[in-house]
Amino acid sequence: MKSTLLSTLCGLFVSMLTFGQTSTEQFETESNGSSSFTDNGVIFNILSVVNTYKVSGANPTAGWNGTSIDNRFIDNSGTGNQSAGTSFSIKTTSNLFKVNRFWITAAAANGTLGVAGTITITGKLSGVTKFTQTKTVGFNSTTAVTNGFTLIDMTNLNGQNYSNLVIDQLQITAGGNFQYLKFDAFTWVKDSGIVLAANEVKSSKKETNIYPNPTNGPLTIKAAENTKFDIYSEAGQLVKTIEAKKGVNQTDITELPRGVYMVKSASEAYKIIKQ
Length: 275
Prior knowledge:
21 strands; Immunoglobulin-like; Jelly Rolls; mainly beta; elongated; 6-stranded antiparallel sheet; single chain
């Protein structure tokens, strides 16, 4: 028994090392005006909460890649597109992630640095808040240093380490006189394999079961209640929707190519392998 447990723990440790892939998105290869970006094979959607946020390439040399000036970033630029309480999220559909750090410029609507304001950073998983912290001081007030960007270090945010928490959505909200935000050099860890091993549920309040896994097509979904399941490819594309009723449901994904897919409901997520 001890030997089996030790083998299981070792396997989990190896899995963590294998799937914990750190990457930094600098936006330089993204399209100007895009409302999404792709890094390390994962699609992130840019969700505008207050004001419209997109990848910006209209102001070359206004970005920061963590060590030097670059050209592209996420912001809410545009005439009349800055206001108090401005906010946006980046969210994945088929992978989970952890946040190591990112760089942000927080300014007045006209881009003036040094005004008083706050930045609230919130991490969510399936709509549930996993952490939220507000930074109130220490914002860069000059473009002479790091091109006006301020480092947000999730390993030590207000004395706490949030870089080890798995999320699928990161939200940034400005307060006070901050009305214009730039977001660049986003360093994150791709962690879908750590949390979502085959048939492993990330939120286990409901007793859903999906089998066989792997499958060559047929799937049985045992649902605790009437539930809609969306199936996403590894690239984050929605490829199939299944309306499951309470009880045992028979379905099929024979038409899908071989690969790894994410099956998600409003509160649960499973990784399945199509052979």
